[in-house]
């Protein structure tokens, strides 16, 4: 049976029933590109003691000291930005839990579950509203393979649209026909655990036995589920979280060692990032409870407001007066941080409600956007183990806010096309990864990718110190000045990055004078 070169390349090495040499494909690309995504990896986790392999990678390559998670700083938003090279304003996946009235009018959609995403895609006709890395590579006759120990939803989004990439996740394998081969070689995937190192190891084994065997995919992405899962449960700085970091570092080392043993390391660009940072939670922000008194009962007996994480969705058209009333009530709550609404005018930094920032400041202006977007408040306060960064969300620890501890995340790169022994303070973001990978692969970058190629990290690009960086602060406040917000922004060329927000509260003048 004869198959085309593209069909052969779609079958990742080792998973195919025959070898590449048997197919007569002897030529290999001069470069390979591997993207390693470590879920919830704060930059300050990467030390020579806890993560020696990743630390050494950063020492010999490029260490980015101003990388940004895309806001809201949650996993599936950033998986979508990595997949599309764009921000939520373009790709339309607006949270870990999102609202789709066509799919489920009374509740949020859990984007961690691939079946929920497939239902949303069926109801709305499209899932991501932007072309993806997988599509761009496929159209150029190149391949993308995803190995993920994270959620099925994140795996689906990274490999979108279906057929644009091979996806290997313990609970979501595409094409489905690959599963028997994987299970026969690796055994059944381990169940989720805290720490989750057995599941991460199973995925690394899949990379070693299939992703790097015989012929490597042009671009390979590997998603590790820790330290995120463990830190959510046990906290930042806990022994279990530290153990999970050591385990992930060892898996990164196994991949690097395999490349070296196969004489491919010198031809492979390795990029290591995370989807977001992490903060300790103090509690206090109960958004759904705060908003509930403002909801009205619909004919079916359910409320006409659905809260999905920080998004406040009105079923049907949002009454501007009621939106303003809800925002005014939230601005009085100390646990509430920055609040965003639709822009008051094109190009304005302030929203339609006094004291709110405009959605475009957060790159969140989309047809699917809710009426109001809320971030929890934050502080620099340290937790009991000495790690700074607290937010007012519930639970032990997590992310999602416009705090610098949630926004600023890890990015390290090393390989034949990257500079050596370089520390870059030029702002970059997860949305910049796809354009950079396409440039490295020699593929045209689609106009829809509003992220930029990180040229200053490449040997052929300008030195990081030569790249102009503009910083500015936009400020908004309520009429009485009792609630004020400052948003810190950084700009590189036409690219704009949200650094963090700050909220300041004081009694209104009439109260202070009494």
Structural description of this entry:
It is a single chain. With 514 residues, the chain is α/β, with parallel strands linked by helices. It has two domains: 327 residues, 3-Layer(aba) Sandwich (Alkaline Phosphatase, subunit A); 137 residues, no CATH class. 28% of the residues lie in helices and 22% in strands. It has 16 helices and 25 strands. It has a nine-stranded mixed beta sheet with strand order 8-7-6-9-1-10-20-2-21, with helices on both faces. It has a five-stranded mixed beta sheet with strand order 12-13-16-14-15. A hairpin with a 5-residue loop joins strand 17 and strand 18. Helix 5 crosses helix 7, helix 9 packs parallel to helix 11 and helix 10 runs antiparallel to helix 11. The chain is globular, with a radius of gyration of 23 Å. The protein starts with a helix and ends with a helix. The N terminus is likely disordered.
């Amino acid at each position: 049976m004869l198959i085309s070169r593209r069909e052969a390349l779609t079958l990742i090495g080792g998973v195919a029933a025959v070898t590449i040499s048997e197919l007569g494909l002897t030529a290999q690309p001069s470069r390979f590109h591997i993207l390693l995504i470590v879920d919830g990896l704060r930059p300050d986790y990467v030390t020579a003691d806890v993560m020696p392999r990743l630390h050494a990678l950063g020492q010999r390559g490029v260490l980015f000291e101003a990388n940004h998670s895309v806001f809201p700083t949650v996993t599936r938003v950033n998986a979508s930005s990595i997949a599309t090279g764009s921000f939520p304003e373009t790709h339309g996946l607006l949270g870990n839990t999102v609202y789709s009235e066509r799919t489920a009018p009374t509740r949020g959609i859990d984007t961690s579950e691939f079946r929920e995403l497939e239902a949303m895609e069926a109801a709305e006709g499209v899932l991501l509203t932007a072309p993806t890395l997988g599509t761009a590579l496929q159209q150029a006759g190149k391949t993308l393979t995803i190995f993920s120990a994270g959620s099925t939803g994140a795996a689906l989004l990274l490999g979108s649209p279906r057929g644009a990439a091979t996806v290997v996740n313990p609970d979501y394998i595409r094409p489905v026909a690959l599963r028997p081969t994987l299970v026969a070689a690796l055994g059944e995937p381990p169940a989720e655990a805290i720490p989750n190192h057995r599941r991460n190891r199973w995925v690394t084994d899949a990379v070693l036995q299939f992703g790097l065997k015989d012929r490597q995919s042009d671009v390979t992405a590997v998603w590790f589920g820790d330290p995120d899962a463990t830190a959510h449960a046990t906290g930042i700085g806990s022994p279990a979280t530290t153990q999970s970091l050591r385990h992930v570092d060892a898996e990164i080392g196994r991949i690097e060692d395999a490349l070296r043993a196969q004489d491919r390391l010198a031809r492979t660009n390795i990029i290591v990032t995370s989807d977001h940072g992490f903060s300790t939670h103090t509690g206090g922000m109960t958004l759904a409870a705060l908003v509930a008194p403002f909801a009205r009962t619909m004919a079916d007996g359910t409320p006409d407001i659905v809260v999905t994480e920080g998004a406040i969705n009105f079923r049907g058209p949002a009454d501007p007066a009621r939106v303003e009333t809800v925002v005014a009530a939230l601005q009085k709550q100390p646990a509430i941080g920055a609040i965003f609404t639709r822009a008051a005018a094109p190009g304005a930094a302030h929203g339609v409600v006094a004291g709110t920032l405009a959605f475009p400041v957060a790159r969140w202006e989309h047809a699917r956007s809710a009426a109001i977007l809320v971030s929890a408040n934050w502080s620099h306060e340290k937790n009991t183990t000495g790690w700074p960064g607290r937010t007012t969300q519930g639970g032990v620890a997590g992310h999602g806010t416009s705090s610098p501890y949630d926004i600023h995340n890890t990015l390290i790169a090393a390989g034949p096309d990257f500079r050596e022994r370089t520390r870059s303070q030029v702002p970059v973001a997860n949305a910049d990864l796809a354009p950079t990978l396409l440039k490295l692969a020699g593929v045209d970058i689609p106009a829809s990718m509003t992220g930029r190629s990180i040229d200053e990290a490449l040997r052929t690009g300008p030195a990081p110190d030569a790249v102009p960086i503009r910083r500015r602060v936009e400020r908004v406040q309520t009429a009485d000045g009792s609630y004020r917000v400052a948003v810190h922004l950084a700009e590189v060329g036409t690219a704009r990055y949200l650094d963090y927000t700050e909220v300041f509260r004081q009694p209104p003048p009439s109260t202070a004078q009494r």
